[in-house]
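Re: Re: token formats

Sure, here are both.
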Amino acid sequence: MATVTFRDETATGKPVAELAVDGLPGRMSVRELIRLRVREEVARHKARPRDRFNGLVRPDDAETALNGYRLREPRRIDWERQADMAEQAFLANGYFVLTGDRQIEDLDEQIDLTAAPDLVFIKLVALVGG
């Protein structure tokens, strides 16, 4: 069994957030890992509902805020909808994923979690006027 660490960083490499999940098989696809990450984020939010959600992608009807997304009111978030949006964001280059020193470009690529247990997520921010 493996432990994976999902780490969010800025484009300059500054750590923003970190989430570790253990008890995983030795190999998983990037798609499975993204869906796992999102499911875990939503489960943690569900355990402590607030008006702010810290996750990979913005929930429907939420506003972008510093280090997260502000919900109009605390509510249940559908992890499967969030995971689908996260996959689409990956395909649209809304963020990219690094393992070791290399960028992952395919959702179906298998990652050896025993050799590379850290995944770095870097969200790309659209420039104003660009």
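Second one below.
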Amino acid sequence: MADILHRIGVQDASPQQVYEALTTVDGLAAWWTADTTESDGLLRFRFPPVGGFDMEVLETRPAESVRWRVVDGPEEWIGTTIDFKLRHDGDYTIVLFEHQGWKEPVEFMNHCSTKWASYLLSLKSLVETGRGAPAPDDVQISDWH
């Protein structure tokens, strides 16, 4: 198994502020993809024209962590889990990100790692400035979007 790991620090923000951006449809739509909805107990993230992902929320602990499981999307993502762990450290809230359980480190994983980094910087920007860069306004890195 292979994992994607990232760490960012969100300045002058409480873990609760970051947590809210990770657990509300409005928050998620403001940093990951504008086409975010919730229905039938699933978070649905769409990235036109390439597709999207459906996530089951496995765990939320206010101001501490969020954990999802991918139940629909690209084959490489199905069954993987996505974790955000939050902690306060001085003037920062540290976000430890893990996208775990990839069956093998295929090229698509490299692409997704770069995209996750750009979206985590969008999360940082959203909480620090009030403005993120969600899809479709995100950084385009290839024809995979």
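The radius of gyration is 14 Å. The longest helix spans residues 107-129.
- S.
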